[in-house]
Amino acid sequence: MAAACPLCAADGGRLVLRTPRWRLIHAEGAGFPAFYRLVWNAHVAEFSDLDRGERAELTEALALAEQLIREHLAPTKMNVASLGNMVPHLHWHLIARFEGDSHFPAPVWATAVREPDAAQLEGVRARLPALESAMRERMASAR
């Protein structure tokens, strides 16, 4: 474990699924109920630090997580990014975006352009248990 790395010390959100190499967590941000992170368990800063097999496994997990979010929530757009500027620990953000969200079409880290659609937020939240059940079932068996 790297000293002072929050993603080494803790899951980094509500754990959805843990495998020997990676974990999927729910990291809901204010106004973004379908905000997930796929975190590589070992302390690695960059994607290119992984070997070929590890990169393939992580890429497949990322693609499957995105696919399941799209199937269950039908977002307007998916934002998928590996930023990690604040935490030197490899992780990918998966954020389902909807036209009624507070920032759309700007990034979630930009200034809000409207009040979020409360009914839309609650509708998304209501579908998360089924999404996460599918994630646990399909992602665990796809390793």
Automatic annotation (TrEMBL):
A motif (Histidine triad motif) lies at residues 89-93. Residues 38-104 form the HIT domain. InterPro entries: HIT-like, HIT-like_sf, HIT_Hint. It comes from the Bacteria. One of its GO terms (molecular function) is catalytic activity. This is HIT family protein.
